[in-house]
Write a structure and sequence with these properties.
Order of helices and strands: EHEEEEHEHEHEHHEHEHEEHH
Structural class: alpha/beta
Distance between the termini: 58 Å
Strand order of the largest sheet: 5-1-2-6-7-8-9-10
Strand content: 15-25%
Number of domains: 1
CATH class: Alpha Beta
Radius of gyration: 19 Å
Number of strands: 12
CATH topology: TIM Barrel
Shape: globular
Largest sheet: 8 strands, mixed
Oligomer: single chain
CATH superfamily: Aldolase class I
Length: 317
Amino acid sequence: MNNESIRVSYGTAIVLGLLKARQDVPPTTAYLLFDKGCIGNCSFCSRANGNKESQKLSRIIWPEFSFTTILEKLTTVPLPFKRVCLQTGFNPQMNDILKELVKKLVATGISTSMTLSPSQTDLALEMLAMGIDHVGIGLDAATEKTYTEHKRKNWQTDWPSLQTLLYKAGSQIEVHLIFGLGDTEEDFIKRIDAIVAAGGKVSLFALTPVNGGEAPEISAYRRVQAFRFLCENGVISSQNCRFNDGRLINYGITETALVAALQHGDAFRTSGCGNCNRPYYNERPGQVFYNYPRALSTSEFAQALSEMGMEMTAELF
């Protein structure tokens, strides 16, 4: 354990002073990655099946450093981050090492989150008992069809297991969903609704096509992004919405109410645990942000509303 190494996101390494480079939007959470020997087979992950050749996860490069060095940097005053997120690969044989990493992170006193698989719900409860304050569960796909195709795991066991976890610890659970795996807006929105109804929240991602496929249309992403925000804030549920051939066409509220509820663009910012902004996780610098890692300007908010592709009138949708 003393010689254990861990990966950190490129932006995190810059903030910690481990790399020298400029970045226009620094991360507000320290993102760590422990995925040695991952046996997951997710279609969209460049590090699936224990692939050690790729230094990337999504669009981010993850250089490797001594875990001891990372702990020293994280706890040097003034503290560089208010939160640490330990992202993990799926490999039950690594659980003992993972628990040791968690003990050391929790001992720093810095708010700590981690990510696990839907088949690791018992481990999630154990991690919460150890002092982790939030667990992200990588459901990723919204239906059995896309889950089987892209996660290549058993929906019939994993979704009920996740539901049980949500009912036990929903306020501490962030379910990761990736839009762009083939789910319709309607199916995706109904899954968000089910997660929120069970007490959880959703961390929303756009598919990053590092292994092929296509990134989702920005208009469709904006619509589900807005729904997630409205649903989590108790403004609407999927029952308020109308769909046409799987496409969201109506939120069931007026334009005035919709624009006000989107809170100057907060709906289009990164969703996740507190202080999480994940800059450039889903897009390259210079591209339109799927998830804005900072507050939107007035013009950016207007652009995001336009990108939703809905007829904006003063009438009811």
